[in-house]
Structures are given as C-alpha cells and as structure tokens.
Amino acid sequence: MISKLIDAIVNKKAPVVAGLDPNLKFIPEHILKEAYGERGETLEGAADAILKFNKGIIDATCDLIPAVKPQIAMYEQFGIPGLMAYKDTVDYCHEKGLIVIADVKRGDIGSTSESYALAHLGKVKIGNSKVSPFDADFATVNPYLGTDGVKSFIDVCNENDRGIFVLVKTSNPSSGEFQDRMVYEGEGSEDTGELDKLEGAEETAQSPLFEVVAKKVREWGETSMDGTYSNVGAVVGATYPSQGEAARKLMPNTYILVPGYGAQGGKASDLKVFFNKDGLGAIVNSSRGIIAAYTKEPYSERFKPEDFAEASREAVKDMIKDINENAF
Amino acid sequence: MISKLIDAIVNKKAPVVAGLDPNLKFIPEHILKEAYGERGETLEGAADAILKFNKGIIDATCDLIPAVKPQIAMYEQFGIPGLMAYKDTVDYCHEKGLIVIADVKRGDIGSTSESYALAHLGKVKIGNSKVSPFDADFATVNPYLGTDGVKSFIDVCNENDRGIFVLVKTSNPSSGEFQDRMVYEGEGSEDTGELDKLEGAEETAQSPLFEVVAKKVREWGETSMDGTYSNVGAVVGATYPSQGEAARKLMPNTYILVPGYGAQGGKASDLKVFFNKDGLGAIVNSSRGIIAAYTKEPYSERFKPEDFAEASREAVKDMIKDINENAF
Fold first, then answer.
1. B50: closest chain A residue by CA
2. pTM for the model
3. Exactly one of A55, A87, A105, A123 is catalytic; which is it?
4. Do the domain assignments include residue A108?
5. Containing domain of residue B278, as a range?
6. Separation between Cα atoms, residue A257 and residue A274, nearest integer Å
7. Tell me: the pLDDT tens digits for B59-109?
8. Looking at the domain assignment, is residue B193 inside a domain?
9. Considering only residues 281 to 300 of chain A, which have any Cβ-Cβ distance to chain B shorter than 8 Å?
C-alpha cells in the first residue's frame, strides 16, 4: 500500500494529506442551518452537516492531493450517526480516488488489536462470509503496549495490502513528557513478571524513548516491505524538527506522517529533515489550515463562507507550493 | 463517580468487573443461527448475536457484580452495526443498575482527546442542545501523548462526574518492552522543540517508565478527588504482580483496574498487592473466564451451550469467592 501512496504523491507532486477533522465550529452557518433544519440539533443533524462539509472539500481538492486523513474522534463525538458520517466519508474519498489514512490511534493487547485492525484495515469473518467494516488504507497505531499490540496490525496489513503509521513523536505540547524521556537502550523486560533492574545500567547507551520506539518501528517495518519503503510508517510532529531529524536517520525506509504543519506551528523549512534524499519519505498533514481556510487570512478576505470549498482548494495549492519550494 | 463504584463494590462484596468482549467464537451456536437466520451472515447479523449474548450474561450476573467492562474493539470490528450493539449494551447495563467501564484506550493531542472524552463520558454541544453520545461511566485512556492528552479527559470527568483508568502497566506479554524500560526520573522536555540531553544524567534517579507514568497518574488524580480515591484510576495487569506492588505504593489514592485474571494467567493470590489495607483500591476484570465459562472446565461439564448465562453466573460466583478468600 505504501507504494500506491508514493505513486500518488509523485504523480500529483504533493507530499500532502488533508486532515478531515470537521469540528462544528469550522462548518459554515448555511450548512449547519440546512442540516439542523432537516434533522434537528441532534447527532443526526451534526453528522449530516459534517458529511456535507467534507464532500465540498473533497470535491474541491481531490485532483490536487494524494490522500486524506479523517480524525475519527471528530466523528465518534457524534455517536453512531457521527461514525456513519465517518464511514460515508471514507467511501466517498475512495470514489474520488483518494487514499484514506484513518487517524484512529488504536492499540491494545494482541488479540484486541487484531479486532481493531480488522475493523479499520481488514475483513471480519461472519459465518462463511467476509466483510470490510470501515475499509481505510492506512491507520495510525499507538505503540505503548509493545510488539504484540502492533504485530496484529501488521499481520492484517500483510494480508490485505494496507499500512499503518505508528506514533513515535507526537506534535502536541506535552509529547516530550514520556516520549523524550532518556531511557536505557537495553531491552525492557518481556513476559517475566519480574522487574529487570538492569545491572551495570550506567554503562549502557542512553536515548530518548521515541528513538527506542523508532528503532522498533524500523524492525517491525522489515516484516512488511513494499518496494524501498515499508507499509509500517511512523508519526513524527512537524513541531519537533530536531526529533524529526533523529527519527529520519533511525528509520531510513520508513514513511513519516508529519502532523503539526500550519495551525499547530510547524513551518515548511522545518520539514526538510523529514524527507530523504530521494525527495520521498514524508507526507505532511494539515487539518484546520485546509478545512477552515475560509475563516483565516489571507483566504477570509477573498472567500465567503459559502465558498469554503474554494478557499480550501486555494489553501491546498498554497501548501503544496510552500512545501515544494521550502521543504527540499 | 469512583465513590459510586466503591459503594457498589462494597454493597455486593465483589471487587469484580465482567469484561463484555463478545468474540463470535464464544457465542453459542443457537444464538448465531437465530441471528444469521434473521439478518444474514452480515455485520447486522453479528451485531444481533452479540447483543443477545450480552443480554443473557447481563441478566444472569447483574445482581452479583458492580460493573461491566465492554471492550469496544470487539464491537468496532463489526462496523456501524457492531457499535450500535455496543451502545445498546451500555444502555442495557445502565437499566440493570451496572456501572459501565468503556475499555476504549483512547488518547490523542489535547483538542482531539476532548472529542473522545465528550463521545464516551460527556455531552456534545449541537446548536443549543447537548447530547450524550455513548454515555459510559468510566473510560480507559492511553498516556503516551502526555498531560495534554489526558487532561481533556479529566476536565470532562469533572464536569460530568465520570472517571478514567489510565494505562500504566498492561497485562500483555510485550508490555515490558517500553513500559519496563529504565528511564531517568527527571522531567522529559516539554514544548521546547529541542532534545534535552540531560546533563549529569547518570546521577539522577532511575525507574521503569511505568513508574514515571504512575507518578503522573497520582498527580493528575489530585485534580479529581472523590472521597479517599480519585476519579483518575490506573490499569495494571494481574500478570505482573511485582509491578503491581510498586504501582500500588506510588498511587495510594488511585483505584486500579486489574485485567489479566483467569484466562491471561493471573491468580487470586497474585492480586493481594493491588489492594490497599482498607480492602479497597482495586477492581479485577475477567472477560473470557466469565463470558465463555460454558466452554471451559469445570462449567462445560455442567452446562450446555443453551445455558451459557447460568455458566457465567457460576463463574462470577466462583471468581468473587476466590478473590475474597485468596486476595486479601
């Protein structure tokens, strides 16, 4: 699946993904009014508004971008109707030829991770039939539970030609709290039920936790290669370029999904370190910067709320130009 | 909310939670046949079977136990119909007076975590109305993203009298890979965009990562006290009693949700370290051991698949007896 994503990035000259995170406060009044008029100020009304808003943005940008990244929390907060809008969004993106990165940040013990993997990337067996429940192309995965929590995802990826992006260094302000913590490089204990107090620990190498996770991602990735790159990617925030540089070196064949550009503060010049010399290796996400463009300068001067989708198209063009000019 | 859970535990003399993780392979043939007959071998058919199975177990055990813990992955794998069965299960448990711990293991950057928290524990605002999407009493939370990813949950808990259990040391075989890794106690970097290579690091105290997380849980918990205990609890697996002992000492006012008893290998005598001297402080989960009891000795000899719910009731009684006799 990563080779399919790379082909789309190269063809469109756009290492860019649009984050479809439709917070109600980003949705223009005329869409809300129509949806609430038809379905009331209910979960169903909110879900209708989200889907209408998404379709506008997808229609206006699908020829420019290779992929979208819906953040499922924004749909899950509207319960079952919200998740139906999520599923309809995934399907609509596929109809428009877009690759879908499901930002679900799931992760659990092995057998439970398998269920999440089947839900989002695979097929569940029901009697003698097999069904794809949510049918995304990639999913984001939380590594805190270790290998058995991630391996189930990789197995499902290998069976269905799908991919994952594992959280390595996230873009948020508190991400350093645990992820930058200096740790010993030696293996953690596994399955012993005992604390392995490392003997002579002061002599072993030290690195931040996210680097230990990055090395695991590289190792996991070797079990799912698809051309030069692996179907096991990583998430590293644009807001932390020095960690990005370290992560890039530790995972040469890993695609990096980079959130945090734009609204969260990451600049295109910060992105250089995330790319490999082949011009590949990273795909940059922007959510609010694209979907709420009509509310922000310079677009708010040129576009009315009714023209939100056109504003998003302009924002995508500007983002692609910015990255191609300043990130290489 | 934790005081409500404690009252229920004390009243029923049962520090026990039933894990409602309805894998299709645990569901008796007669239920599957009926559901598939009505709805086909479809997501809807699987969801119907799950809900019927759950209701049987809930009816047979609700007078004995204070709480249930549905694992949402088991429902999410059946897409929208599966999640409808999840929501119906939550509502049915509430009708029967049970407290619901949503095992969702969500966690994201602050603003996104807020959406997850509203989805599972709070109310979303839609126009001028407020709606509870999934309406559980507790949710499990992944701490890998740090304070801003957890604080949004706590804020929603404080507004709605709900609680969370933060993953500290999980029950699975690979949990030590990162969670037992020896780390420096000094703070990780926060919001600097730079790697803080700790100077003189060899002189600072060292402890496993899960202990650093445990200390954060205690700190977070102080912002949501509800009597002696906090609404911010922790997850520590029964499969790791020595880590459980360390976690108990580091978080004296934190309730610990203990998975891993029974099918995963944890024994009642291993559970002593998880309880405080007041006989409180821990609630032990069993999933397969309860819901699939009719497939396992000694229950499989006495109960037919048609009597699965009665087998679950016997398994719950035996579990409560085992814990009350051997875990204190």
1. A126
2. 0.95
3. A105
4. yes
5. 2-188+200-326
6. 9
7. 999 999 999 999 999 999 999 999 999 999 999 999 999 999 999 999 999
8. no
9. none
